[in-house]
Structure prediction request, 208 residues.
Amino acid sequence: MKELIDAIVAMDEEKAIALTDHMIDDNIDPMKILDAYRDAMAEVGRRFEEGKFFIPELILSGEMLNAASEKIKPLLTAANKSSKKKGKVIIGTVAGDIHDIGKDIVTLMLDINGYEVLDLGIDVPVAKFVEAAKDFNPQVIGMSGFLTMAYDPMKNTVAALVEAGVREEIKIMIGGGQMDNQIRDYVGADAFGKDAIEAVKLCDQWIK
Prediction:
């Protein structure tokens, strides 16, 4: 796993994909592989904030995760796919943040665990979250952000949902590299999820 993490952080796409293929062939738990990608992306995000990495590194690391997800998703789906949807979840990376790594993993895990997920993508404006909440009628909204600059857009989104009169009907969870329970309190969310498994557990608790 460390070798895979190091390859991703080093932007060695060929090695990262080869290691991923090797792990899949060896029947390594696919969630452990995704965890390695998540840990690598946390390091990529940290280096980006420190000015050591730039947009090209973010894009390339995202492409590596997407390639790995395409290989891993069928393995997870075969084991966990439910034909009946449990509920609706909106997810998106907030305005000013273009990270999609954690968001994509959470979307994948919610999907294979039986949730209908509307992925709004990255750099999502406040108004788009509100519009989607009205149109899609979700029970849960998940907001993702890797950077500290994501705090205020999250806070503003929650405030806009309150103003639109839909906040009381929707649970809100946040996640990402710099997120924790202190930030949860700051933005006014209901919960902080440290990983995709936690996000699924939260939805299972909230949606009966």
